[in-house]
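Minutes, project check-in

Agenda point 3 was the complex the collaborators sent over. CS summarized: four entities, 1840 residues total, and the question is how they sit relative to each other. Sequences were read into the notes so everyone works from the same version.
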Amino acid sequence: MLSPAAGLLAPLLRWDDVAETFSDAARVQGMLDFEAALARAGAAAGVIPASAAASISSCCASARVDSAALARDAALAGNLAIPLVRQLTTLVREQDAEAARFVHWGATSQDAIDTGLVLQLRAAVAATLAELDRLADALAALAEAHRGTPIVGRTWMQHAVPTTFGMKAAGWLDAVMRQREAVAALGERALVLQLGGAVGTLAALGEKGPAVASALANELRLPLPDVAWHTQRDRVALVATTFGILVGTLGKIARDLALHAQTDVGELGEPLADGRGGSSTMPHKRNPVAAAVALAAATRAPGLVATMLAAMVQEDERGLGGWHAEWETLPELVSLAAGALHHLADAVAGLRVDPARMAANLEMSRGLVFAEAVQMAVAEKTGRPLAQRLLEAASSRAQAESRPLREVLAADPTVARHVSPEELDRLFDVRRYVAAAEPLVDRVLARHAAARAAASDGEA
Amino acid sequence: MLSPAAGLLAPLLRWDDVAETFSDAARVQGMLDFEAALARAGAAAGVIPASAAASISSCCASARVDSAALARDAALAGNLAIPLVRQLTTLVREQDAEAARFVHWGATSQDAIDTGLVLQLRAAVAATLAELDRLADALAALAEAHRGTPIVGRTWMQHAVPTTFGMKAAGWLDAVMRQREAVAALGERALVLQLGGAVGTLAALGEKGPAVASALANELRLPLPDVAWHTQRDRVALVATTFGILVGTLGKIARDLALHAQTDVGELGEPLADGRGGSSTMPHKRNPVAAAVALAAATRAPGLVATMLAAMVQEDERGLGGWHAEWETLPELVSLAAGALHHLADAVAGLRVDPARMAANLEMSRGLVFAEAVQMAVAEKTGRPLAQRLLEAASSRAQAESRPLREVLAADPTVARHVSPEELDRLFDVRRYVAAAEPLVDRVLARHAAARAAASDGEA
Amino acid sequence: MLSPAAGLLAPLLRWDDVAETFSDAARVQGMLDFEAALARAGAAAGVIPASAAASISSCCASARVDSAALARDAALAGNLAIPLVRQLTTLVREQDAEAARFVHWGATSQDAIDTGLVLQLRAAVAATLAELDRLADALAALAEAHRGTPIVGRTWMQHAVPTTFGMKAAGWLDAVMRQREAVAALGERALVLQLGGAVGTLAALGEKGPAVASALANELRLPLPDVAWHTQRDRVALVATTFGILVGTLGKIARDLALHAQTDVGELGEPLADGRGGSSTMPHKRNPVAAAVALAAATRAPGLVATMLAAMVQEDERGLGGWHAEWETLPELVSLAAGALHHLADAVAGLRVDPARMAANLEMSRGLVFAEAVQMAVAEKTGRPLAQRLLEAASSRAQAESRPLREVLAADPTVARHVSPEELDRLFDVRRYVAAAEPLVDRVLARHAAARAAASDGEA
Amino acid sequence: MLSPAAGLLAPLLRWDDVAETFSDAARVQGMLDFEAALARAGAAAGVIPASAAASISSCCASARVDSAALARDAALAGNLAIPLVRQLTTLVREQDAEAARFVHWGATSQDAIDTGLVLQLRAAVAATLAELDRLADALAALAEAHRGTPIVGRTWMQHAVPTTFGMKAAGWLDAVMRQREAVAALGERALVLQLGGAVGTLAALGEKGPAVASALANELRLPLPDVAWHTQRDRVALVATTFGILVGTLGKIARDLALHAQTDVGELGEPLADGRGGSSTMPHKRNPVAAAVALAAATRAPGLVATMLAAMVQEDERGLGGWHAEWETLPELVSLAAGALHHLADAVAGLRVDPARMAANLEMSRGLVFAEAVQMAVAEKTGRPLAQRLLEAASSRAQAESRPLREVLAADPTVARHVSPEELDRLFDVRRYVAAAEPLVDRVLARHAAARAAASDGEA
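CS then shared the predicted structure for the full assembly.
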């Protein structure tokens, strides 16, 4: 059976562990798992014979589906469940003619398709969480290691004032941890059983409907919603937006990596590996491939999320077009998110950090990045407006004359009146300046440590 | 001061209570509220004099801002906070020259702009929650009143099997209640203080940074995040996706209303009012205006959410373009959501329901909508595959010959062998058929009642 | 080699003829065709030996590529061309060691990838045009056959005034013809050669650069642009937007089909076929599958187009992420468009039209749909405002009392004063009313006939 | 009357000349211009009295519309035309009671609203074209002036090989010229008359329908389409996609400007002006505001285009929601495009170019950017594979030992065997290397000159 995860671009743009959960084979198995569990639930609730449930269930576990026929028939039927149920019925009949009568008992196509999707998503979420942990750990290690490593903070892509590389990493980590929480919450909030029958009333099961639904939720270990959600798509939309925000978060990290990896900046570099990031024609190139993959995902995710939101407007008890629009879109979005996450986790885990280049770049503007600090010190004496005018003038002079700002300021009588040379030295001391970042980094690291500890407890 | 909420289309597409929270005036006041609270927090932490804080604070409460100058200077500066802080400083100086020195102490433009936005969003969320309650109450009343009103369930826009209008309303209510929870959760999850100074380290406040931030969060009654989120935009993205899913939910309801209000269906109608839904040229028209407004919002929201996700990729410590892309997009999205919600709440509260037409439409197919029920009954004797073939044939014959399905089936010997005439009568009894929906409707209504009771307790 | 066109959902959502042009195999062959033609062009311009060109060219025609290795290496290299060129070089060397030295001479990866894509798109465009002709012909036949078939015109999904089904079909045809022109224009406007070398200057080819580019354009029968377009992506964006508008046009037709195919309306139906549009549980269902497929595409295309537009912001001489975002997005968009087109052309070609039901639905409102016509007639005597008030009152009365509007009007003394009974008869004559549509339909049909004749001339 | 163009952020994000064409006042005037011309056309075709036409026409020219009432009534009616026609009728009646009877004769609301929009768009397109000319001229001047100025070409944001700044500017210009053509083509392709009456048949005008339409097209100097396009929205979608691609093109230029303006790169800078691009807290900052504005537009445009495409799926003869979704979206998109264009034209016209810094950055990698040139030269002797391995090794060594590549290569015996020292000098000569770009730049400049000359001829 072919897998959309198997294309030539898959190893570059996706990640096998998640892409496989959305393969055609996994899609079919998800529906078969639903049918098997439905049969067992039906038996438990007394609506189908236990022996039939056993036959159906065993058949679903090892069904040899004719994919070509399935695809061809789905083109006529409008969905995969109709021909799959027909194939399954035939397979069951070969083994247990009586049981064949009870295949898909009480359910509608969408019950099988949606619950199958939920099972696929549950696997994808579990894999994603593990990879988010790997990324978070790598970011925490960076934040810890570079808590005090000065780097120039950049705003509007211009040098602003100093910060630390640990602070940058802590900012990334802070956001990644929030995404981990949001993805983890999907289990309860979004990945719930779908069972409603033709129009959501479970009428075909009569009074036993609720009992079957409850048994089925147990079988599949899925939360049981109050009513079916055939055309109430907020839950799948929430999966989409959660992964969309995750991708945006990864895209921000990737943009930062790409900017810092520029030849002109050189502060960071993706891990070196044979064949990694080369050029077909330029022998000296080392392209930031992981950043490109994550940024590509961040370019694509907004459109895919928009599709899932647009698809929410579904008609009456079963949508016409909107539901169909979800089938490839949500798997694609989750796969791309996982691909970006996986490649980025690799890149961050092996990140080449060049503190010397960071220091050199900080020096590049000859002290202009300390202008704000001096301004604040002067302002304490003169107020902010005068201090700002003073520092703007000194900064302009320093730039025009290619002189250190420290030197220009030292020669300024107004400054001299308000700031002693020792104080000036202190103001131009980068270590002192960036000390403010340390407690902030520590807060984030503490939250990470607590989350990891809680997770270990949970596992233990 | 002009308000984007004030345009000619605003009363149609938006809702004043929320649109006003995003007027230019409210935007400026949000930033002034930040500056006032920052001054008081600075005084509380001992970084600026208490008297300066008092002067700044009082000035912010009644500031007469020169909007034209503000707009013109923002075009050069690149944001509104820079010229606003300048105007504010001048105003404070006129009143208390000493205090003017301490305006905006320790903050950066983005701190004022983002926190101002958060304050605006908090007001918008509160108004939205109240309107969501109004919609939910109206839906609950419909579900209650029509718990047993039969209506044909439609899948793929074709008649499927019977359900109740109460079940439809319960489905809408179920989804709306989830959106209410999601919007309410934004307060803690997304609407938090922004304070980081130039690059997020609060360096300009030295050791007092955390104390000022904490005091400021108290002043504004906003959650205090571990670190600033200047370029970590997942929180504002979450606001966008939450409102995006809300709009999708409303769009689904509106699509259903529009379908049921078709002249050809006529089961539902928006409230009648003088001048409502007329035509410039057709005297007999009653157009479903609220549905159109909600569907327009549902058409626009996905693109606006996509913009907010795309804007997440912001550079280093301050974004170039991404941040600017948020400024009009998020207010527009929230305003459109509120407009759709408000108009839809009106329409649902005054909905014209025609149970007789529902009954007539159910009859239209001469019993075909009971084909599944008969099939299930036959299947209990013959298994699903044979039953399905039998009912497909009978259904085709009934359609081809324009005869009631009940009559065609009664004449079928196979059916007669498995189903008695009494059983057939029972199977074609719509009340019996839709009884399965009642406990489901009740579950949703019970959840709604519990939520309302909890809210009342909270208020009491 | 696996094909993304080969998944289980492909026959439902896509169309083989176009999907195959975007298979992995076709992607590789597109690049190999580029490399072959580049070698021949290089030989023609005298930059590589003719014998080398022959060897490379023959090798590209029958290359046995190791797809697994290609995919794996691309994940490191960041694109497919780098490992493909390496594999090709090895293959050529086995046959002609000397020739191996000249593989990919003077080109960069993006030259091969982009030109390969252009070749794939050219094939997809040709297939799309043929299918657009098929759809246009089917629509023209409908417009011709139903030029005079009355149907109620619906605005805001409410009965408005009569029109003809031919007019509806002509409206669809009018729009489809414009899309055909737009898709055909892509050949000249967008599907041009990409050849620039490392940074677009063709420097590696020295003075022979322009000559090689010109010869290569000839070889591939592609327009030659003034400069390479490595990071100027307006042309591929134009392909995306053109297909996006095509899908929107198809979606509009599909929405109309779905509305007219509702059980409650019953004026149109998709072709009947065994297994087509059935239900897994409801034996009487005939779902409009083609409409669903086209509406699904119309739900997805906007997001995919948005991605292509977002991807236009590419850095300097080679984009980081934006380019990568195009690779799956554009093929997906074009494939979905072709799928929608193919299924819709089938549905329109075999459309079941029910003029009797159209007539019955027109009668449903007991003449209200003629209210505007009477109003215009009265207005000629009384002016529009009075006439409008008059007709609104009469319409309301007719609805409230379930009486024919004709009868209510006949009893109104003001109407009687201005409109004779004969004139009233004339005004309620639907054939007369819809006569105005005929010349409009004819105009569109004439344009279609002219376009078809011109195309035949072109082929002859 | 309030203008959406008038908000605080308008001078930053939009451009008055275009934003004003979408003000509320202009929206109303567009509809009034339609009503005036409709009256004159009706008179010309003999369907209304000439005197009535004169009264209506003069009234439309100076109508004092009650905006508050208009907005309020539109919220009930569902669009602006219904209450506007009512107000207009009242105004006409005060002046000429007879004429009041013929206001809006034969048209439907959508005719007035859509044609009014087309008139607004025509004005916006004209202004946009002038500004595109200004940008193109500025880019041509840059390309001309820096035809030979070396700069490092960057791919994947890494130094690649040398190019010229003139080549970069020519690449921008090439794309901008294509957008100018596409925007200019909108006049014929998209900005056409809308007149169809209630459902597109012009039935209310009887046999005179086509004559009125033709006269109206003449009056308004608009192309006359074969049939009305009430729910065939490809033309407005084309306006959207054309502006969307324009914005993408501007975004690419802006991204390049932002990258080159980085403190770490310093090759380009936006014009300096008092108050431009400052910081509220950092005295030395000069932020690239125009780039930010254009990138913000490029972030927002894809979502807005997606909305216009999604809105294409409109029902039957008048859409429910889709049409409403266009009303604010298209003006917003065009306004943002114009804002980005205007600010970028300013920035490019006054761009600060630093050839010395370009030269210094080229030197930064100690000759690695010539690695490809040497590789090609060696490859001519050894074939590409060996040459590539050789140069990769030399490049790595040069980087590892911080030595010039020229020096490393000179010491390599294999290189020495194939390349003489003189040849090596030649290969490391940047002027020689970038000479290949000159004819390409010239082609683009020639096309620009021809276009400008043709435009002058057109005006003369």
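Noted in discussion: The radius of gyration of chain B is 29 Å.
Follow-up: revisit at the next meeting once the mutant set is ready.
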